[in-house]
Structure formats: structure tokens, C-alpha cells
Amino acid sequence: DAGVIQSPRHEVTEMGQEVTLRCKPISGHNSLFWYRQTMMRGLELLIYFNNNVPIDDSGMPEDRFSAKMPNASFSTLKIQPSEPRDSAVYFCASSLELGNTGELFFGEGSRLTVL
Amino acid sequence: AQSVTQPDIHITVSEGASLELRCNYSYGATPYLFWYVQSPGQGLQLLLKYFSGDTLVQGIKGFEAEFKRSQSSFNLRKPSVHWSDAAEYFCAVGAGTGGFKTIFGAGTRLFVKA
């Protein structure tokens, strides 16, 4: 069974450009999470969805960040315009709904470098 | 709000020696607790979890963890470390309704020397 699939694995862009990161969760999982990992701040929860509905986006740094989940099998995280401080590894994770194990299944991450 | 503290940024142990990684949490109710491992360039993988019941939980790769409510701790242990255990280890606490929000500690990087 395929795990969480993220694309692109690596992205290098220039400041001011739009960046779109993509995620396909595990089929049947109801919750999807976007995390950002940096050396300075560790793993930060940006936003999470349950049944395609955003539940908590309090971790989204600012209005330049937006996330969507148009259906159960796809989510995007968009940064527009991008800035050098957005450089990080962005992870998507999916999980069965509360009442099951709560275990998160992570993708391999998208490493973003903004020059 | 829930939070997780991992007081050790990095730890070095000799291969074959025992290991204990510390984790303290803050949460108002009975927590859901997890340990994850991250190898370089990879996503995180669940080692073990605690929801209720026996406070000593067994995980994959020979790891175990003990939940101590009185100390708000959930320390990870392994009796004999292998070189392949070198990685970063994250303690996490989960809570919430309408979904499942998991907050991670800062991580402890484990180095294994021959």
C-alpha cells in the first residue's frame, strides 16, 4: 500500500516566486497535517484538516501561506510570495480520525530553498 | 495547551550500551503519547504509542517507553543500542476533537559510537 506521497521532493526558487507543495494522503485516512521543520524551530504544525475541512490553521505563519484540501486524496500548501525565511522541509502527514490510533504517517518531505 | 519538552538536544552512547531518552509533557487530561524516529532525509516513523492501560509500552526495533503520570514523563528506553539506531527521536503528545492534533518536542539526536 502506498504511503503519503509528497511532491516536489526538492524545490529551489527565488524570493517573490509562488511555491506550491502537494500531498496525497493514504487512502482512507480522514485527517491531514502540514508540518514545517527547521533547525531553529523544530517541527511546527501549520494546519490540519479533518474530512477535508480545515480544523486548525493557527500555525500558519502569515497570509502568504495558504492550504487547501479539495478532496480526500489531495492537498496543497501554497506560499505566495516566498521569502528566504520560508526555507525549510515541509512534511505532510495523514491519520485515521480520532477514535483510532492517532498515529501519523509522514511523507518524505519537500525541501524548499528560497534564494 | 499541550507541550512537550525533550531536555537533551543530543546524546552519544556506545554500541551495545543502554539508552534512555527523556520526555516531559504538559497536558490537562490523560494524554496520548508517542515516540517517533527520523532518519536523515526521511519522514518520521512511529516507534510506539501510549493511550491507556499498561504504562510500559513496547514498540518496534526493541524500544520501550514508560508513562509516569506523577512525573509527567514518557521516557524512551532500549537495553542495547545498535549503530543503526543513530537518528533523531521525537516525543509527541496528541489531543483535540474533530481531528487529532499532535505536538512534537524539539527532538533528541542520538549518536552511536563503535
Description:
The complex is a heterodimer of chains A (115) and B (114). By secondary structure, chain A is an all-beta fold. Chain A is 0% helix and 54% strand. Chain A is built from no helices and 11 strands. In chain A, strands 2, 4, 5, 6, 9, 10 and 11 form a 7-stranded mixed β-sheet that branches. Chain A is globular, with a radius of gyration of 13 Å. Chain B has 114 residues and is mainly β. Helices cover 0% and strands 54% of the residues of chain B. Chain B has no helices and 12 strands. Chain B has strands spanning 3-5, 10-14, 19-21, 24-26, 32-38, 44-50, 56-58, 64-68, 73-78, 87-95, 101-104, 108-113. In chain B, strands 2, 5, 6, 10, 11 and 12 form a 6-stranded mixed β-sheet that branches. Chain B has a 4-stranded antiparallel β-sheet with strand order 3-9-8-7, with no helix packed on it. A two-stranded antiparallel ribbon of chain B has the order 1-4. Chain B starts with a strand and ends with a strand. The mean pLDDT of chain B is 91.
Name the features:
heterodimer, A: 115 residues, mainly beta, seven-stranded mixed sheet, 54% strand, B: mainly beta, six-stranded mixed sheet, four-stranded antiparallel sheet, globular
Low-confidence stretches of chain B: none
- Major interchain interface with per-chain residue totals: A-B, 25 and 25 residues
Structural class of chain A: mainly beta
How many strands, which pairing sense, and closed or not: the largest β-sheet of chain B? 6 strands, mixed
- Rg of chain A, Å, rounded: 13 Å
Helix content of chain A: under 10%
Structural classification of chain B: mainly beta
Report low-confidence residues of chain A grouped into runs of 5 or more: none
The N- to C-terminal Cα distance of chain A equals: 37 Å
Q: Provide the β-strand percentage band of chain B.
A: over 45%
What is the tally of beta strands of chain B? 12
3D shape of chain B = globular
Encode the helix/strand succession of chain B as letters: EEEEEEEEEEEE
- By DSSP (H or I, 4+ residues per run), the number of helices of chain A equals 0
As an assembly, this protein is heterodimer
Give the tally of β-strands of chain A.
11
Give the helices and strands of chain A as they follow along the chain: EEEEEEEEEEE
How far the N terminus sits from the C terminus of chain B, by CA atoms, comes to: 41 Å
Helix content of chain B: under 10%
Overall mean pLDDT score of chain A?
92
